[in-house]
Write a sequence for this structure.
């Protein structure tokens, strides 16, 4: 005795292709290819993925207060020390953790943080000190949280950080003493 297995009653892609004539099928392929090419051309025309309605403008690297402080800092810093400005924290501090998730989350917490001034020994490339210029923005709670995070990271990395209050003018001897020069 033979057992009959009922045919699957589902509807699949082959059912569509049998119902289409070759010219219709060819038209679908051509239209799909045209749409794909058009999308790629549009993407290529947007230079580096930026849309045409986005503009970019240069802005000063330092605020007026930071520029004034930098001029003063250059006067009190020993000649064998280089000063770098607006340096991303992640550029000179590595996150070390055995667990990938822990390392990633801590990296992400400090990824977009920058410090105002980094004093570097050019002979060794070693960061000797970080100087933060504290203006009125540092009084905001969000900024205080950021400062605390930066101070914690630098402390754990063994990098001294000095906070200097922004002023209209600076006493060179006092600043030299504050920085330990």
């Amino acid at each position: 005795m033979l057992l009959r297995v009922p045919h699957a009653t589902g509807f699949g892609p082959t059912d569509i292709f049998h119902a289409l004539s070759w010219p219709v099928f060819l038209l679908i392929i051509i239209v799909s290819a045209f749409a794909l090419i058009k999308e790629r051309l549009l993407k290529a025309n947007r230079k580096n993925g930026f849309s045409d309605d986005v503009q970019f403008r240069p802005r000063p690297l330092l605020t007026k207060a930071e520029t004034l402080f930098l001029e003063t800092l250059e006067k009190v810093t020993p000649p064998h020390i280089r000063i770098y400005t607006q340096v991303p924290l992640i550029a000179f501090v590595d996150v070390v953790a055995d667990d990938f998730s822990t390392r990633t989350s801590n990296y992400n917490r400090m990824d977009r943080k920058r410090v105002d001034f980094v004093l570097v020994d050019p002979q060794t490339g070693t960061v000797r000190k970080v100087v933060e210029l504290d203006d009125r923005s540092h009084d905001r709670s969000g900024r205080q949280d950021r400062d605390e995070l930066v101070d914690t990271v630098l402390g754990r990395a063994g990098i001294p950080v000095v906070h200097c209050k922004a002023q209209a003018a600076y006493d060179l001897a006092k600043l030299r003493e504050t920085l330990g020069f």
